[in-house]
Amino acid sequence: MRMNETEKELIAMVLAGRTEAFEPLVTPYRGPLLALAARLTGNREEALDVVQEALLRAYRSLRSFDPSHPFRNWLFQIAANAARDRGRRISRERAAFPEVIDRAAAPADPEARLDRRETYSGVMSALAVLSPREREVFVLRDLEELDIRETSRALGCSSLSVRVSLSSARKKLRLAIRQDFPHLKEDR
User: Fold this and answer.
1) Would you tell me which of 37, 143, 170, 181 could form a disulfide with 50, CB atoms 3.0–4.6 Å apart?
2) What is the DSSP string of 62-98?
3) Other C-beta atoms within 10 Å of 158: how many?
4) Eight-class DSSP state of 20
5) Which of 72, 106, 140 is the last residue of a domain?
């Protein structure tokens, strides 16, 4: 998938100093970026922060964008990196302030859980069985439908690493779905 002419023109405008062209450049990707970030973080509020950070990073790094690659994939790579960075930061904060985290982790309100769709929460819970790398690979490859090469580029790893992580992720998800989420049926 190559970059379209409109994207090329908008990028050129932004690089020429017309910052207002950035918004129409990224608007078609806001939904997919939010979906990606939500799947990677498992939390909509954190996902919104990740998308904000990713778009800021994309704006600041636009000069380094290689137009021979799809713009969408470049944005996904930045969002995946932002989600990974946020996860590391949260882990460090939890390690530094465990007593605050323990007090804040009150039981979930049953009414709040009813507001979420059953399938979405089941899938997010199933994704929790994956390691961070398996989750990234699974989300980019199977949910966002990047091919193996695009996924490896987005994550900065080899195609073989993507294949191994994807295979492991799929096995873990099948097992989790069969054992813990029988209401989620596999089509295959």
Assistant:
1) 37
2) GGG--TTS-HHHHHHHHHHHHHHHHHHHHHHHHHH-H
3) 11
4) G
5) 106
Amino acid at 129: V
Close Cβ partners of 59 (under 8 Å, ≥ 6 residues apart): 14, 22
Report which of 164, 157, 112, 115 is spatially closest to residue 138, judged by C-alpha positions: 164
Q: Is the distance from CB of 25 to CB of 11 less than 8 angstroms? A: yes
> Does 7 share its domain with 39?
yes
DSSP character string of 6-17:
HHHHHHHHHHTT
Q: Among the three residues 53, 80, 106, which one is the final residue of a domain in this structure?
A: 106
Whose CA is closest to 140, among 152, 131, 127? 152
Cα Rg, the chain, nearest whole Å: 18
- Count CB atoms within 10 A of the CB of residue 58: 23
Q: For residue 97, what pLDDT is reported?
A: 43
Whole-number Å distance between alpha carbons of 160 and 121? 30
Question: DSSP code of 28?
Answer: G
**Strands, E, within the chain: which ranges?**
none
pTM for this one? 0.60
In contact, 82 and 90? CB cutoff 8 Å:
no
What is the domain range of residue 133?
Answer: 108-182
Task: Give the mean pLDDT per block of 10 residues along the chain (188 residues).
Answer: 82 94 94 92 88 94 91 93 83 53 45 52 74 88 85 88 91 81 56
